[in-house]
């Protein structure tokens, strides 16, 4: 979460520069990049667990259908 705080501090610093054009676009670009990075990390960590959960559900359904 330290990286998130750092990016937010950077974005807040950009807001102080009201006279520079394009700062808003940069802020939105940074936020989109941050959200994408967080999603990639979360999916990377949880991907195997989600796959295993669905495999367990599939096995349970197959077991009930065969009974």
Give a written overview of the molecule:
- By secondary structure, this protein is an all-alpha fold.
- It has one domain (about 1-65).
- It has helices at about 1-15, 25-65.
- The longest helix has about 45 residues, at about 25-65.
- The relative contact order is 0.08.
Brief rundown of the structure:
The protein has 67 residues and is an all-alpha fold. The chain is 87% helix and 0% strand. The protein has helices spanning 2-15, 23-66.
| Secondary-structure content class | mainly alpha
**Low-confidence sequence ranges:** none
Number of domains: 1
Radius of gyration: 21 Å
Keywords:
67 residues, mainly alpha, 87% helix
List the helices and strands and how they pair.
Layout: H1 2-15, H2 23-66
Helix pairs in contact: 1-2
